[in-house]
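chain below, 165 aa
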Amino acid sequence: EDDPVEAARLEHKMRKKQEKLADSIQKVKAEQQKQFQQVVSDQQKILVNKLPEFADAEKATKLKTDMRSYLQSYGFRDQEIGQIYDHRIVMLVNDAMKYRSMQKLKPNLASKMAKPGKVLSSGVKKTKADVNFAQRREKLGRLKKSGSIKDAQSIFLDMITTNKK
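prediction:
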């Protein structure tokens, strides 16, 4: 404390160490920034490979804007959105947007779908004459069993009405 020369020397030594430390911190920050930029660049390349829409500048800008508004609708702040660098998260947001838009279209699709047609039975369609003949045979069998006048009348009425048509 009493020696001013020694104090100046120690102060100079301390300043040199602080400068070295500041230089080291600056170099580490520069290296970290360089590595970060490399990671962002790599992620961007992967994203372009997986989602070709990002290769076109116009489409990429529109897609980024849509994604930003989509994420904001879920409560994400701009600062949080700006920190998304991983291509997997971008792909996830893109898929979620597409899914949501499909869900919005779903009610319209139900009304546009064609209603199923009438179910057809297999085999040859019976004609009216076949049906009438089968009914007449059935009534004739009933007449043979019962012998009633009503059954005979029914057969004659059928014969008269089918002949008129």
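The mean pLDDT is 88. DSSP finds six helices and no strands in the chain.
thats it, cya
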